[in-house]
Amino acid sequence: MKGKKSAVLLAVCAVLFWGCKEKKASGMHDVSGNIIEIQPRESAEKSSGGHARISGSGNICVLFGYGFNSGDFTSRAIETLSREFGLAENGGIVLPAVFPDDLHGRISNLKELIDRNTVRAVILLGAPENTHAVLARILEEWNEKPAFNIFSLFPQDDVLGQEGTCNFVLDAQVSPEAELGGDLQSGTDEDILSILVSSVEYAALLPGVLPQDSELHAHVQAIAGKRTVVRYVDSETGIQSSNHFVIEPAEQP
Fold first, then answer.
1. pLDDT tens digits, residue range 97-114?
2. What are phi and psi of 247, to 5 degrees?
3. Do residues 165 and 148 touch, judged by C-beta distance below 8 A?
4. Is the whole-model pTM more than 0.85?
């Protein structure tokens, strides 16, 4: 996993460096126009739990929604996230929530969870129906400019709604269950966990909110790692989405 951490860090730095070099208005500079440096987790202060604490404030809320809320998957994923980043309740940065149990059966309670915690990012894995409506209410309170990123992975919610309320949407060319899901022991399930871990680390290392510009594809590709990511194109209109991406099917041996 250490090699993967280094790869993610290098990817973040590379995308931010070249994006800022080409376009100062990319949102990754401070008010004086200086490039914001990113602190690697390896050099951050170690907590008593042994995980690395990333500089900055706020937790990363990870919502486990439809298709990814089974006991086996969530326990394994939360254990991995706890080991890598630490859970918020123990001084780490990950604030996990499993739908529907942890939200008392209502996705609208996601807003309350976010409101009562200081968050630096929200990562939705399998966002359930009407999640976009909750996000829209949150964005309205922030005048459409929240101080945190919202990443949506393999949503079950209305896609247009997700595109309108998240920094980016990452999906599969076929259903997540058919392409990336299934038995946790399979290599494709490892892809899901790898993308989730990468998303959390990426969100923690980013110095600001991801703008929807020409560099967004590179950011999402860095998160997806070895899986190839392309922009979603509507089959009926031929229009290419600005922030919706799909993972191409893995090559068969």
1. 999 999 999 999 999 999
2. -90, 125
3. no
4. no
